[in-house]
Amino acid sequence: MSFNRCLDNAYRNASKMDVQSTLRLLQTVIGSVGIFGNFVVCIVIAKVPAMRTLTNAFIFNQAVIDFLGSLLMVLDSNIAIPAVLHRNALIAGIQCFIWDSSVILWVIYVASTLNLVMLTSERYLAIVYPFKYLTYFRKTRATAMLVAVWVSAIGYKGTNVIYRQIVDRACVIASLSTAASLAWGIVTFLVEYLIPLIFMTFCYVHIILQLKKASSTVHAEPSTSQQGDNSMSGSLLRARRNTLKTLFIVFATYTICWLPNQVAFFMFNFGFPLNFNGAFYLISVALVQLNCCINPIIYSFKYKQFQTGVRVLLKPCCPKLAHTREGESVAVTLSHR
């Protein structure tokens, strides 16, 4: 019996190591793709003048956030803290409270969510309330929103360190009181997932209704003198629709990727057992990390303005790839004004 038990324990440990090794490799691949993809997005927006719009400022910030998240993902999955922490208290504190808690990584993940909310807000105001948008939405306001994303994420998620403590030079998960655990679980689920989800769903539903209304106006039978204006309006509407479709896919991807992790953490804070080294939790974290690398892929296949920007950037070395369809560059430039 004792021999069989030893074999069973050895098999479980081997299976656990296989799962963790596989996920580590997966996280490294995902992170590497995210580093490259988000770097390309940043370069295209920074180098192509037509890409420097308020909407793309938020997309640029999203790419910076996801680039940093991808970079830290690769480092975090391949650099583990030692079982016995450093003798120096400061270094031990950094190892446990900063690195092992992944507090910086989770700050970036929350910043990604908040920036997506801000991006949705910008598009909502531009499409549903265009006159107010032109009057009140300036570069200074957009800059303030971008700064608020980072300040809020750091101030809120920096509290992740409360889940770690040092005991006998070992970094262990801290035990919170039942009331504190319940309260933090509810706040986390609401702030990081449910409230952003409800808000963005409301915005996109309202935007879709507004675009349908605008579409019916544009496609009404025009007089001869109005055909030129309606043609430009149609191009602008198509460009805005393309931007909306792209951002809606980004939003849907966020919803799917974040759901397992948020549900797992929510249930954990309500007393349900959760193995932080188990396959389910690690896969849920991998899905959150996948969200960091998938946006550039979405832009490449769906975002016409980004595709045009890439062609413009490649024009000096690849003239054939730099071809832009007639009217496309005008439409994508106007779509965010």
TrEMBL record:
Transmembrane segment boundaries:
25-46, 58-85, 97-120, 140-158, 193-211, 247-268, 280-301
- Would you name any one GO CC term? membrane
Q: Spell out the SUPFAM superfamilies in the cross-references.
A: Family A G protein-coupled receptor-like (SSF81321)
Q: Which Pfam families match?
A: 7tm_1
Its primary localisation, in coarse terms, equals membrane
Q: What Gene Ontology molecular function terms does this protein carry?
A: G protein-coupled receptor activity
What UniProt keywords apply to this chain's record, in alphabetical order?
G-protein coupled receptor, Membrane, Receptor, Transducer, Transmembrane, Transmembrane helix
Respond yes or no to whether keyword Hydrolase is given for this record. Answer: no
Q: The G-protein coupled receptors family 1 profile domain covers which part of the protein? A: 37-299
Protein origin, superkingdom: Eukaryota
Subcellular location(s) per record: Membrane
Record-stated family = Belongs to the G-protein coupled receptor 1 family.
Protein's UniProt name: G-protein coupled receptors family 1 profile domain-containing protein
Q: Which organism is it from?
A: Patiria miniata (Bat star)
Q: Give the classification, highest ranks.
A: Eukaryota, Metazoa, Echinodermata, Eleutherozoa, Asterozoa
